[in-house]
Amino acid sequence: xxxxxxxxxxxxxxxxxxxxxxxxxxxxxxxxxxxxxxxxxxxxxxxxxxxxxxxxxxxxxxxxxxxxxxxxxxxxxxxxxxxxxxxxxxxxxxxxxxxxxxxxxxxxxxxxxxxxxxxxxxxxxxxxxxxxxxxxxxxxxxxxxxxxxxxxxxxxxxxxxxxxxxxxxxxxxxxxxxxxxxxxxxxxxxxxxxxxxxxxxxxxxxxxxxxxxxxxxxxxxxxxxxxxxxxxxxxxxxxxxxxxxxxxxxxxxxxxxxxxxxxxxxxxxxxxxxxxxxxxxxxxxxxxxxxxxxxxxxxxxxxxxxxxxxxxxxxxxxxxxxxxxxxxxxxxxxxxxxxxxxxxxxxxxxxxxxxxxxxxxxxxxxxxxxxxxxxxxxxxxxxxxxxxxxxxxxxxxxxxxxxxxxxxxxxxxxxxxxxxxxxxxxxxxxxxxxxxxxxxxxxxxxxxxxxxxxxxxxxxxxxxxxxxxxxxxxxxxx
Length: 478
What we know:
The protein is mainly α and 478 residues long. It is built from 17 helices and four strands.
């Protein structure tokens, strides 16, 4: 076990000492930057990543606090809150055990953890167990963030923890870049102990792809885009002036730069969607009279307009200055479709969808098939039933609105919903499993904490009111 792993365990156990879960909350987002660190050490067999380990303790910390278990159960089974996601989680755990055995040796899949890159006959594997754990943990994160997200202090710390996680992504990217340039890449080896295929030294057009402390560039660039999107949209909700005016903009610019330097096709596609979402949100806030921080809209427009003028001036005055950038975009985006890696990834999705149809839409079981598309992963692994539960949950969550009168809460909710749009786009291009991940799970939990509809809560409140009315009514004479 390397010293970063030992330090990570010390920090996690230290987070269990105070009564408040806030220390673990900050660790949770901070550990998201260390995706190549195995806490069991190199050669430990199973990958135990820092963020997942911290998530287990964070879930336990919140659920075991006073009176939270009963509330958690109500929220989990309430159709107006997380009932659909709970049903999805129960079904996929069932499918992970049953489907690989029911359809064993009847269909072919590309195994999730196998080093064999071609299709093999379906049979139960350890990936069914590991993906079941990850999916259950993702639901746990959604649940506890939904429990705590209604608290104003927790929302404030959530945004600050998100900012801290973004800054750590930038720091790890800079460390990877500078260490490689100085010929000291071996100094980062203690952070790269995960049992994955680590692609940390690839180059495109002679330029090293920045991977931070992730297994590969496609694991580093997309989280940077997701973090930048979340911070850019949540910036009006930051009440601290120093964070709002200085640190958050700096983090956004740094994350966007790291995403560009990752030279990841998925990250580049996410950057395009980020620009579209940011522009649409700016227009929405311009037209909404109650949007918070409306005074900053003019400065944002001036900054974007100035940057566009500088770029245009550079193209006109120095037409060859951006040749490398043109070549890089052409290589990463437009020529990617003919590359060997893209052909291989496309074959994963094709084989998985063939398995989906071969099972008459029942799916091959959670963790059985590798894809390069999250939507295809959900369909092929969990079948029509799982996809229906999950799709219904997402649609319901997006259509529900905050019913209070606080414009800052309404802005917070809208920002979280929009922040998922680039993630959906990137998950379409590159996502191997049906699990949506812990970062997205935290966002879903915060969204759920500010939305509610019908469900058990309304039923119980209606029963309570009717009982109070009957208790206060005078007895009728006979």
